[in-house]
Amino acid sequence: MLQQIADELIKTSSYINGRWCDMPAKFAVVNPANQQLLAQVSDAGAAEAEQAVQAASTAFAGWAALPAAKRSELLQRWYQLVLQHQDELARLLTLEQGKPLSEAKGEIAYGASYLQWFAEEAKRLYGDTIPAPANDKRIIVQRQPVGVVTAITPWNFPNAMIARKAAAALAAGCSFVVKPAQQTPLSALALAELADQAGIPPGVFNVVVGSDAKAIGAVLTQHPLVAKFSFTGSTAVGKQLLKQCADGVKRVTMELGGNAPFIVFDDADLDAAIQGLLASKFRNAGQTCVCANRILVQRGVYQAFADKLAIAITQLKVGDGLNGDSQIGPLIDANALEKVSNLVQSAVADGARLLLGGKADSAGKQFYQPTLLCDVRADMAISRAEIFGPVAPLMMFDTEQDAIALANSTEYGLAAYFYSRDIGRVFRVAQQLQFGMVGINEGIISNAAAPFGGVKQSGFGREGSQYGLDDYTELKYLCLGGL
Ligand code: ADP
């Protein structure tokens, strides 16, 4: 299965200080589409995490001292190499993660776009001069890299979640250590190989792969040489890691869970809303933190919307992501399937109507049928949990204020979406939604030029955009006196 991928991109051990660290203990990486073994990967732990942090700390001074144009050039080269290998990286990603190959290609391009974006932003790390209160003084503000950055990333975007963080960190002049999810180490290691080929100096970008997330996480959040920790994953784990960072007063970025409302008002373009919903809900088989999680539809268009959606969902093709026409791949593991299945069953037991799907798909052990539920209520478990599966739960509402109140009635605040053609409503609703990102007549909102991040318990910090360097730099104020 890995045959169509060049050997140089198939790495099976941690990349620390520019070296591959083979170890006797291994953990298995399996294809979620068929449970076949893909690779045995060297199982690094706390000791290797410690080495990586040390290496990053040693490399930091030299990297930070490089002219911004030089860091930019190296990031550009990395970007180009990733794009050159887009097809192979996408195949590797689909094999270990399961998403359809076309989506995997999209993710590689999306991840690469952050390398390109921050290669450009690296050159624009501007400071300020501020009018001083007296003529014999000057106030100068500079931005300096925070230092060693560590990160832990999830399996749902095995390439892009690393690229998005590493690109900003390296552009700012920080060195970087990442622990990818145990399920998807191969994409992370392939990215390291290309960083190496691009000429990123040893110790500047390190990848520690291992099965003991807790042990590695303890080092990455608590080591005295770590200045900043960046996490993308579940809110429960994020809270734990945030506590671990507190003792050392580490700078922290948290991209946590979401519970995105997708609101369809009476005046919406229903066909556009269906297209937006399919993209937002079913991408990656529903396993993204910005996936539509609660679909709120106004009474006047509720039935028409449900009918159209049912037709669209029936046409979705379930299957192994490597099959050219598959649109819905497997869920990441057996636990994920069980969780989704339980949520649907409990919704039905609580009175929701099952219009389509509702059980495992015959495509394989970890596939779940695209599912449509109607008459879901806010008090059901499925409305409160992050579903992370191809399940669309529809809820009815009457007024604009009802929709806003329902949408905001969650502890999460990552993405929200709504469809309306009334310009007044567009501004009113956008203003009142308590979410970090709002898609208006749009189901796909993430790109390198825009700030990605959440409010409330979805976390803090922003990735991408002109603001993306802020999390990786400190302001330093210089006061020149006696002039
Ligand atoms: P998901 O539901 O996406 O798997 P998790 O929060 O469980 O979300 O996982 C995201 C990342 O956090 C993964 O890399 C995982 O290995 C890591 N992780 C999970 N638990 C811990 C922990 N206790 N300490 C450190 N890292 C953890």
Structural summary, described in words:
This protein is of the alpha/beta class and 483 residues long. It has two domains: 7-256 and 458-479, Aldehyde Dehydrogenase, Chain A, domain 1 (3-Layer(aba) Sandwich), CATH 3.40.605; 261-440, Aldehyde Dehydrogenase, Chain A, domain 2 (3-Layer(aba) Sandwich). The chain is built from 14 helices and 20 strands. The chain has helices spanning 46-65, 68-84, 86-97, 101-121, 160-172, 185-198, 213-222, 235-246, 270-282, 299-314, 334-349, 381-384, 400-408, 423-432, and strands at residues 14-16, 19-21, 26-30, 37-42, 128-130, 138-145, 148-152, 175-179, 205-207, 226-232, 251-255, 260-264, 292-298, 353-356, 371-374, 391-397, 415-419, 437-440, 459-460, 473-480. The strands form five sheets. The chain has a seven-stranded mixed β-sheet with strand order 14-15-16-13-12-17-18, sandwiched between helices. The structure holds adenosine-5'-diphosphate (ADP). Residues 152-155, 179, 181-182, 213-214, 217, 233-234, 237, 240-241 line the site of adenosine-5'-diphosphate.
The percent range for strand residues is 15-25%
What order do the strands of the largest sheet run in, or round the barrel if closed?
A: 14-15-16-13-12-17-18
Bound small molecules, by name, code or SMILES, are: adenosine-5'-diphosphate
Computed structural class = alpha/beta
Fraction of residues in helix: 25-40%
CATH homologous superfamily name of the largest domain?
Answer: Aldehyde Dehydrogenase, Chain A, domain 1
What is the name of the CATH architecture of the largest domain? 3-Layer(aba) Sandwich
CATH topology of the largest domain: Aldehyde Dehydrogenase, Chain A, domain 1
Number of separate structural domains: 2
Radius of gyration: 23 Å
Arithmetic mean of pLDDT = 98
Number of helices: 14
- Residue stretches low in confidence (pLDDT < 50, at least 5 long) are none
What spatial form do the alpha-carbon principal axes imply?
globular
The total beta strand count reads 20
Distance between the termini: 70 Å
CATH class of the largest domain: Alpha Beta
Largest sheet: 7 strands, mixed
Keywords: Oxidoreductase
Organism: Rheinheimera nanhaiensis E407-8
Enzyme class: oxidoreductase
Family: Belongs to the aldehyde dehydrogenase family.
